[in-house]
Structure formats: C-alpha cells, structure tokens
Write a sequence for this structure.
C-alpha cells in the first residue's frame, strides 16, 4: 500500500487542501441545489489546485476527481465519457492508498456509468471487483432494501438472460419491475 504523507507541508499544499476542500464543499452545495454547471466549475478549480500541489495520484486529488465524476453522472448520458474519465483517475489513486470506503464509492460510481450505458457485465465487474471495496449505490436507500449480493445477483440475471437491456438504460430495475414490463 502506497501512503501519501506530507509532513511539514509547504504553503502551496496547505492552500490546496484548504481552498480545494472549500471549493469541493461549495460544489456539493451547488449540486444539491441543482446547479450542476456551477458544481462542475468548482470541482474543476479544486482539481487544478490539488493537482498542482499533490499530483494526480493522491487521495486529496482523488476526492475531487470522484466528486466531478458524480456531477457528470448527474448531468446524464451526454456526460458519461467525462464521468468515466474522472472516476478512473480517482480509482487509480484510490487503488493504492486511502480509505477502502472511498475506493468502494468510486468503484460503485463507475458501475453506474456502465449501468447507464446498458453494459451490465462491466457494471458488475466494477462493483464486484474487490470484495473488500463494495458499497450499495442505491441513493434512495430506506429500510428493508436489498443487500448488495441481491443486487449483484439481479445483474447476473439480466446479463445472462438473453442479453436484456433496460429501456432507456436509465438505472437499476428490480426483478419485480421487469415482470411488470
């Protein structure tokens, strides 16, 4: 495991962390308010600061890559290539260092990219790729939801059962949804 440690950071690194974190927080607030273009701008500025101070293979920079990837996911099918690009940058940094939970979120986000494209096999590969780095990507979680294993088995059913593609490739459909179609 590669660990990025900065003892006695220089001014550029201190500013990148403080200003970059502030920009990410502002971007998140804009995203929650529905201003995805504003969120994109904030995340891109945070990335510029963090790459200059830490490079691209750093957990601090990876946080901003992942955040921007999530913004592009929310922007929809026209921005999936951008989402994939930034999520893969986040994945490259997070595979080597940082919390496993962060890695799991990035892997799940990449699964969403492929899910939205209708590529359920690849979505499953990213979501199942590491048993120690899995999370539930259901943003509308409530009580009584299905387990991760159950969701992955549904992927298996859809990807092996005559290559079924979901209408519009707009997200996960449950087996009960498929029966009603």
């Amino acid at each position: 495991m590669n660990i990025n440690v900065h003892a006695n950071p220089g001014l550029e690194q201190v500013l990148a962390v403080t200003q970059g974190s502030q920009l990410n927080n502002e971007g998140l607030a804009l995203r929650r308010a529905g201003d995805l273009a504003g969120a994109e701008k904030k995340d891109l500025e945070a990335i510029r600061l963090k790459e200059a101070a830490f490079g691209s293979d750093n957990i601090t920079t990876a946080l901003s890559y992942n955040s921007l990837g999530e913004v592009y996911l929310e922007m929809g099918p026209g921005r999936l290539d951008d989402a994939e690009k930034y999520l893969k940058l986040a994945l490259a940094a997070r595979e080597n260092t940082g919390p496993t939970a962060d890695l799991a979120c990035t892997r799940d986000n990449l699964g969403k990219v492929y899910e939205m494209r209708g590529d359920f096999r690849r979505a499953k590969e990213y979501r199942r790729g590491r048993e120690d780095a899995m999370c539930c990507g259901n943003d509308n979680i409530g009580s009584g939801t299905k387990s991760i294993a159950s969701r992955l088995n549904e992927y298996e059913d859809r990807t092996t059962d005559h290559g079924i593609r979901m209408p519009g490739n707009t997200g996960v459909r449950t087996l009960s949804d498929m029966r009603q179609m």
